[in-house]
Amino acid sequence: MPFKRRPAGERYAVERSAAVRTSRRESGLMEDRPPAFPRDQLYEAAADEASRSHIDALHDELSKDRPSAEKIETHVQRLREQPALLAIVTNWFDDPRVQTFLGDLSSAGL
Which member of 79, 82, 89, 94 has the lowest number of beta carbons within 10 Å of its beta carbon? Predict the structure, then answer.
């Protein structure tokens, strides 16, 4: 597929959107963290120690100063593979605020 050049107005809108997100984050107007991670609820539903280690790994990644969206998604996928944890982690992960947070993490490198 050949490269399609965006119209100038559209390029400006994309660049402006990224700049506004960055400046809002730096000024403190944007939430830096997703909604509370349901760690306790997941721990109660976890069947074994391996499940709890995945929960802890995701919690640790979320607690970092610069969490990785890719690592968060990998941990969530591991938790979704366990039927007892599926609904809890899916409800948290699919929250629009979590998705916005992940989008902001992904676009931070722009």
Answer: 94
The answer for residues whose C-beta is within 8 angstroms of residue 55's C-beta and 6 or more apart is 39, 42, 43, 46, 79, 85
Residues near 93 by beta carbon (within 8 Å), at least 6 away in sequence: 76
* Size of the chain, expressed as the number of residues it contains: 110
Q: What is the pLDDT of residues 16-74, one digit of tens each?
A: 555 545 544 555 444 567 789 999 999 999 989 999 999 999 999 999 988 999 999 99
Question: Residue 89: CB partners within 8 Å, gap ≥ 6?
Answer: 38, 42, 76, 79, 80
Question: Is 61 within 8 Å of 72 (Cβ atoms)?
Answer: yes
**What does the domain layout of the chain look like in residue ranges?**
32-107
Q: What's this model's pTM, rounded to 2 decimal places?
A: 0.68
